[in-house]
Specification:
By secondary structure, this protein is of the alpha/beta class. The chain contains six helices and four strands. Strands 1-2-3-4 form a four-stranded parallel β-sheet, with helices on both faces. Strand 1, helix 2 and strand 2 form a beta-alpha-beta unit. The termini are far apart.
């Protein structure tokens, strides 16, 4: 992938990793080992392999940006997805080490951490939950946004704008950081 991107565009300036196996539900007592392995293979090792492949290309370009998409579930449990949350937590820790290691090569590494995003899976969840509870979808959305000071589920465009910023030269001195895009639901 990196060779093709470099050949097609002349260089690799930024890499955004949006790996997410987030369809495994359960807690510590009912999540099989296979779910843990699948979650870590996709969410952590897939990212690690992409970063390893991208590093020589970014270095050859004189530096660049790597942005990973995390998950607020790693810090704020809501839906029982322990394997997904644990993998995204491991990715968060890995980002810190990558930023330190790759910084001298002028490669910045950051993570964007969204909360619920108003995308088809969440829209489906809202619809299904409203139907199951016999209430209006607005009531389910109100429950989700109750702890969001901005009072709105972020759109995928909101997350994308943050990613574009971190890939741009405007963020040239930002590395090893996690930026929450969550309408203020969790503040740190």
């Amino acid at each position: 992938i990196m060779d093709t991107a470099s050949q097609r565009f002349g260089a690799v300036d930024a890499v955004v990793n949006v790996a997410a196996l987030d369809t495994l539900f359960g807690g510590i007592t009912d999540s099989p080992v296979e779910d843990w392995q699948a979650s870590f293979d996709t969410n952590v090792l897939g990212t690690v392999n992409l970063v390893r492949a991208a590093t020589p290309h970014l270095e050859a370009a004189g530096g660049g940006a790597i942005v990973m998409i995390g998950s607020q579930s790693a810090m704020l449990p809501q839906v029982m997805q322990i394997t997904y949350a644990a993998a995204k937590g491991a990715l968060q820790s890995s980002m810190l080490y990558m930023a330190k290691e790759l910084g001298p090569r002028k490669i910045r590494v950051n993570t964007v951490i969204p909360t619920w995003m108003w995308v088809p899976p969440v829209q489906g969840y809202v619809s299904m939950t409203a139907q199951d509870q016999g209430v209006a979808e607005d009531q389910i959305i109100a429950g989700i946004t109750a702890n969001m000071p901005l009072g709105e589920i972020p759109a995928d465009e909101d997350v994308a704008e943050c990613v574009v910023f971190l890939c741009s030269d405007r963020a040239r001195m930002i590395t090893g950081q996690s930026i929450l895009v969550n309408a203020g639901e969790l503040m740190r």
